[in-house]
Amino acid sequence: MQTFRFIDLFAGLGGFHLALDRLGGRCVLAAEWKEHLRDLYEENFKLRPEGDITLVNPQDVPDHDVLTAGFPCQPFSKAGEQLGFECTE
After folding, report:
1. How many CA atoms lie within 13 A of 8 on its CB side?
2. Catalytic hit among 18, 73, 83, 87
3. What is the pLDDT of residue 73?
4. 1 band by pLDDT with thresholds 50, 70 and 90
């Protein structure tokens, strides 16, 4: 299987990371603004996500083959407050 490089934006718990890693990918950058999720992501994947993606200098973004961006699932999840599109965060 050929290796590819990916970026995991709005990474959350790392669902995209897990899937793409199992397909032979290597994560070269992750970003997640919630601190507790950054801690968990680092514990699970040994990679500390950047915080607010708007503060990352575009020149610092490494070359990559795939870019993923997680949908904000908490407003729609049974695990969240279920505010849906009314969520303002």
Report:
1. 26
2. 73
3. 66
4. low
Q: Which CATH superfamily is domain 4-86 in?
A: Vaccinia Virus protein VP39 (3.40.50.150)
87 carries an active-site annotation: no
* Contacts (Cβ under 8 Å, ≥6 apart) of 81: 74, 75, 87
The rounded distance, in Å, linking the Cα atoms of 60 and 65 is 16
For residue 77, pLDDT over 80 is answered with no
pLDDT at 74 over 90: no
| First-to-last C-alpha distance (Å) of the chain | 39
Instruction: Provide the pairing of β-strand 4-9 with 25-31.
Output: parallel
